[in-house]
Structures are given as C-alpha cells and as structure tokens.
Model the fold of this input.
Amino acid sequence: MIWKCEQIEERLSEHLDGLLDAPERAAFGNHVAECAQCRMLVAQVGGALAQVHRLEMVEEPLGLATAILDATLGPRAPKKNWKIFGWLQPVLQPRMAMGFATVVLFGVVTLQAVGVQVNEIRLSDLHPVKLYHASTRQAHLIYARGEKFVSDLRVVYEIQSRLRPAQEEPPAPQQPAPKANPQDKPNRESNWLNDPACRLCVVTTGLTSVPGRSMR
Amino acid sequence: MRRHTRRVYNLCYRFTGQPHDAEDLTQEVFLRVYRTLASYKAIHGGFTTWMTSVTRNLLIDHYRRTKKDRVTSSLDEEATMSKLEEKASAARRPDQIAVAGELSMQVQRALGRLSPDLREAVILRDLQGLDYREIQDVLEVPEGTVKSRINRGRIELARLLEQMGVRRE
Done:
C-alpha cells in the first residue's frame, strides 16, 4: 500500500488518534519518512494538538450553580425558624459545638475535683472564696490520704524485708539426731520462733525476746 | 450537577471565548434541559451526549444571533480571559502561570478564528474528549463528515498557531 500526500492530509487525525490499522499505519509511516512536507505537517498538527490538550478546565463562576438551581427549581424559601434561632447558627457549627462541649466537660471535671457536687450545684457554690476553700480542703484531703498510703506501704515493706531473710535461709543439713537425754528439757522458745506466723507477730509487736509460755 | 455545570460552561467558553456569554449560555442550557427532560430517552445515547447536543444547538443559535455585532477581540475580553486562565492554573509558579496563560489565550484566540463547524468539532473531540461516535450523535452528521471536520479543524488550528508564532513542542 502506497499513500500520497493527499491521503496523509486526509487521514492525519486518524493517525494522531491511533485509529489506523496496521497496513495503513505502515503506509503512513513510509510516506512521512520520505516526504519532508508531510513530515512537517504531521509535526505541526501534532504540536497544535498538544497545545490544545494542555488547556485546562476553566472554573465556572461561583454563583452559577445556585443561579441555575434558582432558575430551574425556583428560589429557595428561607426556613421559618431561621430568624428566631439565627444567633445560634454559629454556635451549632460542628467545630464550635465540639469546643463548647470540651469547655463544659473541663468545667464539670474541675468542679468535681474541688468537691462541688455538680448535680446539686447552687449559685452560692460558685463563689470564688467558697471554691478556694473547697479546693484547699480537697487538696489537704488528697495529701493526707497520700501520706497515709505511703506510711502503710512503708510498714508493709518493713515487715516483708524482715521476713525475707528467714524464708530465704537454706535448709540446714540434717544432723544425726542427738541422743535423747531424758533430763534435757525441749527448747520450746527456739521452736516457737521458727514458725513464720509467730515471727510476724514478733516483728509487728516489736518484741525480740519472748517469755516462754506466757506468749502462748 | 457541578460536574455538568463545569463541562457545559467550558464548552460554551471555548466556543464563544467570552466568559459572560458562556455563563448566560450555561444557564440557558440547564433551563432547556430542565424543560425538555421528559423528551430525553436513554436510547438516544448517554445523558452527557444529549446535554452536549442541547448545548451545541444553543451555541449555534447564539453564534447566528450575534454574528452581526460580534467583535473578534477586545481588550476587556482579553483581560477577563487572562484572569480566567490564571485562576485555572493558580497552583503553579508565577512565571509558569504567565507562560501557560499566554499560551492558552493564544490557543483560545486561534480556536475563535476557526469556522463554527470546525471549531465545535475540535472542541468536542480535543477539549471535551468525546469519541467520533458521540460527536456524530451530537452534530447529527455522518461519521465521514465528523472525521473530515476534525481533521480540517486541527490542520487549520495548527496553521493559525504557526501564524501567531506559538512555539511547537
């Protein structure tokens, strides 16, 4: 298939749009390779097409869509309650509402922290002096509770530290049992101290020596 | 709604080259579509094609109506066109905006110099992205005529751009 310049010009757009089949494409290519005039035409139109494709969508005027809606569906009637609650509209925006809710939550948490019952709140409870006293009282209470907690912990740790060496002692190697001497009295005091429960009693009461039978 | 508005507005703007006319024509297109919606049947092609067809008819009416008092270019129109092009490419650097704005203004001017038949064929194919079959439905002409108009339109546009000194890339 051999094409002439007229055919190249006629089928140029189809070539640019990729609509030529294989034999046509080959005939187009062969001619353009040999004909400088057609080669220039192809380059010229291809360049122009690239410029056209580069054109961007122009933004429509802002009020156009609204104007179209008004022209087709008629102007929208304003809501009746709009004017009455109009002042609320800025507050009811999601962002404002979230901010407002956060402030209220913060206030409730703060009042609870200073000891004001939110469900039984009165105007007098919000007096600065009363709030100051309530917060001071609450702070002292929290401090006292903390101090008591630390003190209790200290006692518990002390008891545990005194008991631990006794529990961690390795068991003594078994000695052959001494021959029973009927005259010897059994060492009741040492047996009594080996019992962990009894040791706890000793530690808590602060006694180091236990009078023989009186502790029973 | 917004997608269709933008598409119709662009079609009108590229055909008339005048933003105010494009705005009025877009409104008119939607009014006509709204009034004649009952006459639309899916067998006549896609809704977009039908809408484009309505737009094209209005553009041709507008072209005939304003043939006498049309001014090819005025300073005011060029200033408005320039503003529109700048708005469309606002995310780029100032030098790029200036070059792109100048180029698109020249292409728009060259489009305006094409005959209406060739102009609408080129706009529908290369700016609206319709295929040959859809253009055939919109223009209601045989496929051969569509191909011929697109081809002649592109060659003429290239010649005009060459005359205007637009650099080829």
About this structure: Residues 128-168 of chain A form the longest helix (41 residues). The interface with chain B takes residues 9-14, 16, 19, 41, 43-45, 47-61, 64-65, 67-69, 71-72 of chain A (CB under 8 Å). The two ends of chain A are 125 Å apart (CA to CA). Residues 98-163 of chain A form one domain.
